[in-house]
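Re: beginner question about structure tokens

> Can someone show what the tokenized structure looks like for a real chain? I only ever see the sequence side.

Sure, here's an example I had lying around. Input first:
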Amino acid sequence: MKYNRFQELDIMRGFAACWVVGVHFWYFNFLPPFFGYNHFFEYAKVVGPASTIAKFFPLPFNSVDNIVFDLVNIFFLLGYQGVHIFFILSGFGLAYSRLLKPDESWINFMSKKFIRLYPTYWILLAVSFIIPRLRADLFYGYFDWWSFWRSWIILDKAIPFSWFMFPLIQFYLCFFLLFKSLQKFSIEHFLFTSFVIKVIYTFLVLILGFNNVFSPILGDLSYPGYLAISRLFEFCLGMAMAKVYASNPTLLINYLTKPVTIALAIIFEILGIMGSFKFSNPQFLGVYFPFGLSFYDAFLGFGIFVIVFNVCRLLINFSDLTTRF
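And the corresponding structure tokens:
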């Protein structure tokens, strides 16, 4: 099968990486001193943990009489959505690589993939073992040894900002089953099933955690564990797009750039953001029901991917410099 370079996805990968780095720098290093706090810990006590989009907006509009600052603040603090792009791109890249080499043995195929990823995983474990002994404050107080030991069985993050690698490795481990399902079922059936599984799992984990039924075994309450199943829809969405692209690249691009698709993406983006607000996760008779948080990742993933894809496509047409960058 002939390899087709998907330039838009290359640009999206670079944009998402910069966006994720930006949100961490902005939130942990820029905002605290900007508002007169000596360090992040003081700032966090006032603002609270930024685990949902509602807490990503510590300022009302024009609160510092500078609408430019407010807009930049919103842009950077929405950088966590770059992670959704990464999961979709990971599903796309892995599935597309397999579709290009259907006759290659699964052992050889997965061995090559693990060689690229797994050494970095062990380096992170080594770093997470050494650094906290020297400077625990580097992890903003989020490091704990219980997370470290769970990391050895690929169930949790070794370092707070490295958590993305753990569900990704888990996806690698179960990719054979996911790929067989992609081939066996229609794309619609494949995506609907992944969405339902993801939502049910997330809802059950969060409702138990939020209501103190148990102490979360996998990760903190702001994430439904660090198992791949919590990001299943996003990864499978990338796989589905790879299947379409491998058979007809133009068809996928035309679909992603349709006005109706862009409109749906904006709607899903708005619904995803609303899903993380308090009114979408109500409390009845003292029991929290995280309805919105159960689906907001999936909605944001689809929404932000389509929006950023079309922006990157415009940038390619605007300047060849963007493509080279």
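Each token stands for a local structural state, so reading them left to right follows the chain. The chain has 14 helices and two strands.
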